[in-house]
Amino acid sequence: MTPTPGEPPVRLVTQGLTVRFGGLEALGGVDVTVAAGETVGVIGPNGSGKTTLFNAISGLYQPAAGEIRLEGRPLAGLEPHLIARLGVARTFQASRLCLGLSVFDNVLIGMHARRRTGLVDAVLRRHRLRGEVRACLAEAARLLALFSSGLVDRGFDRVAQLPQIDRRRVEICRALALQPRLLLLDEPSAGMNPEETAELMKDLQVVREAAPDLSLVIIEHDMFVIEGVSQRVVAFNYGRKIAEGTFREVSAHPGVREAYLGKEGGRG
Amino acid sequence: MSPVLLAEAVLFTLVVAALLAERPASLAATGLAGAATAAALGFLPGLRAALTRAFAAHRVPALIGGAVGALLLPFFLRGSPYWTFVATMALMYVTIGQGLNLQIGTAGVVNLAGAAFAGLGGYTVGLLTTAAGWPSWLALLVGPWAALALGALLFVPILKTRGHYLALVTIAFVFIFNTLMNNLEFTGGPQGIKNIPTLRILGHAFTTPPAIFGVRLPAHANFYFLALLMAGLATWIARRLHDSWLGLALNTLRDDEIAARCCGISVTRGKLVAFSVGNFLIGLGGSFYAVMVGFVSPPDFDFGYSLVMLSVIIIGGVDSVAGVVLGACLLVPLPERFRFLHEYRLLLYGVVIVLTLLYRPQGLWPVAVRRYR
Amino acid sequence: MPPIELLLQQAMNGLMLGVMYALVAVGFTLFFGVLDVIHFSHGDIFMLGAFAGLTALAGLGAIGIGAPAVALALAFAGSILVVGLLGVVAERVCVKPLARSSPLMTLLATLSLGLVIREAVLIFYPRGADPKPFPQLLPAGGFEAGGVAIRYENLAILAIAIVAMVSVDLLINRTRMGAAIRAVAQDPEAAQMMGVNLNGTVDLTFFIGSGLAAIAGILSGLYYSEIHFIMGVSGGVIGFSAAAIGGLGNVYGAILGGLLFGMVQTLSAALIPRGSEFRDVVAFAVVMLFLVVRPSGILGEKSAERV
User: Fold this and answer.
1) Shortest CB distance from B354 goes to which of C113, C123, C287?
2) ipTM of predicted assembly, 2 dp
3) I want to staple B124 with a disulfide (CB 3.0 to 4.6 A). Which of A86, B143, C15, C140 is the partner?
C-alpha cells in the first residue's frame, strides 16, 4: 500500500493476520493499517480478538498465517524483546508494573535496551554507569513530568504506594521510554471511575502532543474515551474486523450494534 | 560521623561479648545490654530514623568502620580457635548466599541445588589437588569455574521451566549429584576425598598460626582473613550488579516476564547470567570449604544444606545484598553459641524460615529502593 | 539382556513401588488442584504416617492386641486419622496463609516445614536417627507363576493400595464432598458462590491427601520392613515428580505417574550395569527430561497464565 503524496506514511500493516489456539481461531484474516501519527481506536465485545491482535503484534503469539510489518519491516516470528527494540511498546489490561520497585526504576527499565554500559562497567567502571543512569533518570523525570510533577517527587516511592491513575501513567511512561514508533494501549481506563477516566483522556492528549509522530492504537470498552481520542475506529467481532471508519460511522454500523447488543437489540 | 562510629563500636563490643562471655555475670550483662539495644531500636522509631540518616549520610566512614571491625575480630577471638572457625564459616555462607540471592532473590530463578554447586566446587578442588597434584591455591581458583560450567547442564530447564517445576528439577539435580558422588569410584564414594593439602600462599602454610603485629592468632585466622576477602568481594560484586541495568532487568523479569520481554529485555540472557554468576559464587564457597576443612564427602553437600543456604537469604530478605550478610552472621553462629541448640540446629532453621515467611516476608534487612548513588 | 523372568520380577517390584508412589502423588495433585500450591512437606507427612503406624503397632502390641489383621487395621485407622489431622494443621498454619502471595513463598515455606517435621522426628522419637524395623504383619509365603515369584505380602500391599485409590476415586467422583473438591479445584470463587464451604473443602482435601500418604507410609514400612526418618525426602520428591509427570491437578495422571516412576526405577536397576545404585539417577534424569519437554504432564495440567 503505497502512500499518496500528502498522506502520512504507513507505520503498521497487518495482512491476513490469523492466530489459532488449537482448533479455535482467535484472529481470522485481519487487515489493519495504522499511519504515522495516527490514533486508532479498537473496539469489540469480550473475546473478539482485540488483545490477541496486540499480542500477535508484540510477538507474544505466533501467527498461523498472515503478515505484520512495521514501516516495511516484518515482525511475525520475531521474539518479543526484539520487536520491542524495533519500536513497538505497549501497556497491558492488568498493569504489569513491578510493584516493589520505585517509580523511576519502572520507567528506567524502558531504557534498558538503549544502554551502552555493560556488566564490566557496572562492577569496575562505576562512574560510567552512574553517568548513564543519571542521564536516564533525568529522562524518566521528564517523561513523568509530562503528566504530573507530583509523580517526579514520588520518583523513589514504590509503585505499590501509588493510586491506580498514577500507576497507569507510570506504565505509559515506561512504554514511552522505549522511544517507540508504535504504542499499543490495552484498555487503559480499566478499573477507573469517571473522574479518573477524564484524567486519562487528558493524559492521552499529553502523549499525543509530546510525540506527534507516534502511532497510537487503543483498545477500549469506554466509548467516551474512544470517541474523544481516536481519529479512526476499527471494530472486531469473533476474531474478524467487521467495521472501520470514524467513530460515528462505526457506531452506526449494524454489525457493530449487533455485536454489542445482540440481534434483537438496538433501535436507532 | 561520630554517631556512626559510636554505633558500630557498640555493636562490635556486643558481638564479641556475646560470642565469648562464659561466666554467669558477664553472660547476664551481655544479655541485658543486647536486649536493651534491641528494645531501643525496636521501640524508639526516632532513634532508628536518626541512625538510618546518619549511616546514609556517612556511608564511606561506615563501611570503613565495618571493615576495620571485621579485620580486628580475630584479634579479639584469638583465645578461641573455635569461634574463629565459626566466624570463617559465617563468611563462607555470605559468599554462597550472595550467589544464591542473585539467582532466587534478584532474578527469581528457583535454585534448590545450591548444595550441589558448592559440592561441585569442593570436589573439583579435592580432585585437582589429590588426584592431579595441583597446588591448593590454583585449585581454589579453578573450582568455581567448574561449578559455573557444569551449571550449563541446567540451562535448558532454567529457561523452559519456572516456579515449582524448576524447583523440582533442581532438587532432582542435587539428588543425582549426591548419588553420583556416593557411587562413583573416582570421587571416593561414601568416604569422599581426604587429605586435601592446605593452602600455601607465598610460602606461608595456612595451618601455621600467623603472627600479625606481634600478636599470635590461631591457625584458623588465616582462613578467616581469606574468607573475609572472599565475602567482601562477593558482596561488593553482588551489590554493584544489583544496582545496575542487570539487577533492574532481573527484578523485572522476576516480577513479570511478559512485561520484561515487551520492554526489550532478553529473558534468556538475564536468567543465564544470573544463574551462572550465582553458581560461580556458590562454587567459590564450596571450593573454599574443601581447602579449609581438608576433606569433602557426599553428606557435606546434601539437600539439607540447600535449605540452610536458603534460610540465610530468606531471613536477611530476598534480593537484599545486606540481608545476606546479616542472615549469615545471625544463622551460623547462633546454634554454636547456644550449645543446647546445636542438636536442634536444622529444626531451628526450618522454623525460622516459616516464621519469617509468615510474619516478615521482606526479611530483617529488606531490599531498599535503588538510588544509584 | 537379562532373562524375561528377571524383567517380569522387576516389573512386579515396579508395580509395588509404583502404587505406593501413586498414593503420595495423588495427595500432591489434589493439593495443587484446590490451592494451586505444591505442598513440599507432603513427603514428610508420608514419613509421619509410617512412624505413626509403627507407634500404633507398638502400642497395640503393648496392650496385648497382637493379631495381625486387627492390629494392622487399627494401625491404619489410627495413622490415617492422626496424620490426616496433622496435614490439616500444616495446611492451616503454613500453606493456606501464603497461598495467595507469591508461589515462591509457599514453596519455601513448605520446604522448611518439611525440614521441621523431619528434624522433629529425628530429635524427639527415641533414637530417631536409626532406621526402625517394621513388624512383618502380612501373610508370609507365596507362589510361582511363569518363573516369577509372587509373594502374598506384595499382593496384600497391592490390594490395600488399590482399595485406597478406588475409595478416593469414588469419594471424589460420586459424593457431594468430592463434588465440592472438584468444584473448588476448577474455580474457587464460583464454587463459593454455589454455596461450597471453601475452607472446609480445603481442609477435607488435605485430610484425604495426608491420609493417603499415611497409608503409603505404612505400606512402605511393610514392604521394606523398616522405616527411616529421612524416607520422606525422597518419597516427597518422587511423589511430586510422579504428580508432575502425570499432570498436576489430574488424579489419574498422578496414579499413572507413580506407576511409571516405579517401573522406570526398577527396570533401570535391572537393565543398567550397577543399576541398583544408579536407579534414582536414571529416574530423576527421566523426570528432569520430562519436565523440560512436556511440563504440563502426560494427562495435562489445569489452566495456564492469561496474558
Assistant:
1) C113
2) 0.91
3) B143
Give the Cα separation of B41 and B35 in Å (integer): 10
Tell me how far CA of residue C28 lies from CA of B257, B339, C17, C212, in angstroms. 27, 38, 17, 10
Residue B338 to residues B200, B316, B345, B348, C267, Cα–Cα distance (Å): 34, 21, 10, 12, 49
Q: With helix as H, strand as E and coil as C, how does A220-261 read?
A: CCCHHHHHHHCCEEEEEECCEEEEEECHHHHHHCHHHHHHHH
All chains having 3 or more CB pairs closer than 8 angstroms to chain B: A, C
Closest CA to B351 of C231, C119, C105: C119
Owner of C-alpha cell 528506567: A108
CB C26 within 8 A of CB C165: yes
Can you tell me the distance from the alpha carbon of A235 to that of C46, in angstroms, rounded to the nearest whole number? 57
Tallying the residues shown for chain B, one arrives at 373
> Running DSSP on this structure, what letter comes out for residue B294?
S
> Chain C residues with CB inside 8 Å of A51's CB?
307
Residue pairs between chains A and B whose CB atoms are closer than 8 Å: 102
Residue of C nearest to B178 (CA): C281
Contact of A95 with chain C, judged by CB distance below 8 Å, is answered with no
* A34: enclosing H helix or E strand: strand A24-35
Burial C253-262 (b: 16+ CB within 10 A, else e): bbbbbbbbbb
Question: Hey, what's the cell of B49?
Answer: 530514623
Backbone phi, then psi, for A123, in 5-degree steps? -90, -45
Mean local confidence (pLDDT), B18-39? 83
Are A183 and A215 in contact by the 8 Å Cβ rule? The answer is: yes
Q: Which chain A residue shows the shortest CA-CA distance from B269?
A: A81
Task: Express each pLDDT in B115-173 by its tens digit.
Answer: 999 999 999 999 999 999 999 999 999 999 999 999 999 999 999 888 888 998 999 99
The verdict on C304 touching A (C-beta cutoff 8 Å) is no
C173 CB within 8 Å of a chain B CB: no
> Chain-centre distance of CA C275, in angstroms?
24
Contact between chains at A119 and B273 (C-beta distance less than 8 A): yes
Q: What is the DSSP string of C94-145?
A: IIHHHHTS-HHHHHHHHHHHHHHHHHHHHHHSTTTTS-EE----SPP-EEEE
> What is the DSSP-derived secondary structure letter of residue B339?
G
In this complex, do B371 and A99 lie within 8 Å of one another by their Cβ atoms? Answer: no
Give the C-alpha separation, B90 to B178, whole Å: 24
Work out the minimum CA distance from B217 to partner chain C, whole angstroms.
37
**CB-based contacts of C132, cutoff 8 Å, min separation 6:** C51, C54, C226, C227, C228
Q: What is the rounded distance in angstroms from the CA atom of residue B331 to the CA atom of residue B74? A: 19
Give, as one character, the DSSP assignment of residue A9: P
Contact between residue C302 and residue C248 where contact means Cβ atoms under 8 Å apart: yes
Neighbouring chains of C at 3+ CB pairs within 8 Å?
A: A, B
Do residues A55 and A239 touch, judged by C-beta distance below 8 A? no
Of B262, B269, B230, which Cα lies nearest the Cα of B246?
B269
CA distance B305 to B144: 18
How many Å apart are CA A57 and CA A66, to the nearest integer? 11
Give the single-character DSSP code of A22: T
Q: What is the C-alpha separation between C202 and B142, in angstroms, rounded?
A: 51
C307: chain A residues, CB-CB within 8 Å:
51, 55, 60, 92
Lowest mean pLDDT among A13-27, A144-158, B298-312, C144-158: C144-158
Show the cell assigned to C184: 473448588
Contact A66, A14 (CB under 8 A): yes
Q: How much is the pLDDT for B34?
A: 82
| Cβ–Cβ under 8 Å, residues C98 and C109 | yes
CB contact under 8 A, B372 and A130: yes
